Structures are given as C-alpha cells and as structure tokens.
UniProtKB/TrEMBL annotation:
InterPro entries (alphabetical): LabA, NYN
Gene Ontology MF annotations: RNA nuclease activity
Superkingdom, natural source: Bacteria
Organism classification: Bacteria, Pseudomonadati, Bacteroidota, Sphingobacteriia, Sphingobacteriales
Residue ranges of every copy of the NYN domain listed in the record: 2-152
The protein's name: NYN domain-containing protein
Protein species of origin: Hufsiella arboris
Endpoints of the signal sequence: none
Length: 169
C-alpha cells in the first residue's frame, strides 16, 4: 500500500504540549506509519519566524533528514482592533488540502496528523475518491467532525507513545 503523510505541524506541536504532556519524535512517527505500507511522500507543514530562532531552525533543518518535505509559511501577527489583542498565526490548511489532492495519484492511503476539524470535508472527498484514511491525533484534541469522518481509521497518539516518544532532547 502506498502512503502519503500530511503533518499539520502547529496542531501536532500543541497537541503534544497542551494535551499529551510528552513529545513525539517525528522520525519515529514516520517509521511507525511505515509499518502500514510504503511511504511515498511525507509532508510537514509549519509556520516559521523570520528569521527563525536557532532552535526552530535546527528543527526545520532536521525534518528533511527524517524523510519529510518541509512546507513552511512565515508567521503573521494579527491585531484584533476590537479587543486590542494580537495573535501569531501561519495557517497552512489550504496547502495541506491542495497537496492531498495534487498528489492523489501517488497514494492509496492518506495519513493526516492533526485534530483540526477543518479537514473534515477534504477527508470525506478523499474517501469518495477511493482513498483509505488514517487520522493521527489524541482524545481531547480532535474535533468531533474529524473524529466522525475518521471512524475506525483514527489512531490515538497516546496508544503508540512507546513507539514514538522522543527520548533525547
């Protein structure tokens, strides 16, 4: 089975930091997914500072050596005139969906590492096109809509902690 992996970097990071309280090794995650078939492509989508901090740059530089194609976008600061608050954001959802469909002939299974409900429609359409799906997220950090479309094709990161936990920092 040919597999393509799509990692929503921001969602993946906050899922670990806020919910799991432990960190996954992106290379170990890819190795685990590789037990389900042949990984043809693996994309890692991430917002980055301009210029990136040294620690972030080291992580970005390491991703291709782990087997990921890096797709990045500069983080923007958004000012809310109503509340006066600022928010830093680099939304890459559209890039993820475009890559899912632009590479659709290259895989039999799409693996999405994200709990973002915005991907519900894309996954529904992929399934309608005959693609198998696997959503990797964790309980309490996956939107109901995404959980509903994944059904039995959902993998809780907590259940594979022993296989993917980062052991060195």
């Amino acid at each position: 089975m040919r597999i393509s992996v799509f990692v929503d970097g921001a969602n993946f990071f906050f899922m670990q930091k806020q919910k799991l309280q432990w960190f996954a090794d992106p290379k170990k995650l890819l190795d685990f997914i590789g037990t389900k078939g042949e990984i043809n492509e693996a994309f890692y989508y991430i917002g980055q500072d301009a210029p990136p901090e040294a620690k972030q740059q080291a992580f970005l530089d390491a991703l291709p050596t782990m087997g990921y194609s890096l797709v990045s976008k500069q983080i923007k600061t958004i000012y809310d005139t109503r509340t006066g608050a600022t928010k830093r954001k680099a939304n890459l959802d559209i890039e993820i969906v475009l890559d899912m469909f632009n590479t659709i002939d290259h895989y039999d299974m799409a693996v999405l590492v994200s709990g973002d409900g915005d991907f519900e429609r894309a996954l529904t359409l992929l399934r309608a096109r005959g693609k198998q799906l696997l959503v990797v997220a964790t309980e309490g950090f996956i939107a109901r809509e995404l959980r509903n479309v994944a059904g039995r094709h959902y993998l809780d990161m907590q259940s594979i902690k022993v296989d993917i936990e980062k052991t060195r920092y």
